[in-house]
Amino acid sequence: MKNNTGEVYETKNIIIKKLSNRFIYKIEQLLINNDTANKKGIDIGSAEGHLINNLKSKKLLNNIYMTEIDYDKITNRVTDKSELQYIQCDATNISFKSNTFDFVIATEILEHLQKPEKALQEICRISKKDAAIILSVPYEPYFQLGNLLRGKHLALGGKTPEHLHFWTRKEFNKLLNNYLIIKNEYRLATFPWLMYLCTNK
Q1: Which of 28, 54, 158, 197 could form a disulfide with 144 if both were Cys (CB 3.0 to 4.6 A apart)?
Q2: pLDDT for res 4
Q3: Could you give the strand order of the β-sheet that contains 86-88, starting from the edge strand earlier in sequence?
Q4: 66-87, pLDDT tens digit by residue?
Q5: pLDDT tens across 132-163, in order?
Q6: What residues make up the domain containing 131?
Q7: 167 and 111 in contact (C-beta within 8 Å)?
Q8: Number of structural domains found in the chain
Q9: Residue 72's pLDDT is what?
Q10: Is 1 a member of any domain?
């Protein structure tokens, strides 16, 4: 899965579409359970805004900031410009004050970063103590195997070229535990992605 979320939202592959719908459904459940429609949140690495546009259309988000480092993705966003709070910034240097947000979404972004630890530190900094933090990364090695099965990135053994990290469940849990408290972990309902609901330490 590229950081360009359009690949998932616009795919004609029935299997990928089904898997991505399950992934999005789990995010929706977590947002509903945490009453995010009435809270202030941030989505880190929004790309063109496919995910947030989907969630806003279902009335799950009302006060959400979207961040993206790639200016081209911001200018080509799919969401209604009049309804957005879209900010260009780096996930490792987020331009908000500490203890600002009631919830954070950072899905499919950490594996793209040279320093994911710095991004996790920033997420901790901008989140309130009891904030709901929703994170996801590809579930390796299954994500790579999925690429191989559909004939993608064969020369790289199925590794997505845009990804800089290829975490197993054990490896990513270890990384998260350095910065956050894991409340819930999902791997079957969101396969081939790992998803977590966390809070600040």
Answers
A1: 158
A2: 44
A3: 86-88, 63-68, 40-44, 101-107, 127-138, 193-200, 180-186
A4: 999 988 887 777 665 546 688 8
A5: 999 999 999 999 999 999 899 999 999 999 99
A6: 6-200
A7: yes
A8: 1
A9: 83
A10: no
* Cβ 87 vs Cβ 63: under 8 Å: no
Q: E strands, 69-156, where?
A: 86-88, 101-107, 127-138
Supply the CATH number for residue 92's domain. Answer: 3.40.50.150
In the predicted structure, residue 39 carries a pLDDT above the cut 80: yes
Measure the CA–CA gap between 119 and 164, rounded to whole angstroms. 14
Residue 170 to residue 192: CA distance in whole angstroms = 15
Q: How do the residues of the chain divide into helix, strand and coil, expressed in percent and rounded to 5?
A: 40, 25, 35
Tally of CB atoms within 10 A around 36: 22
**C-alpha–C-alpha distance, residues 90 and 45, integer Å:** 8
What pLDDT score does 85 carry?
Answer: 82
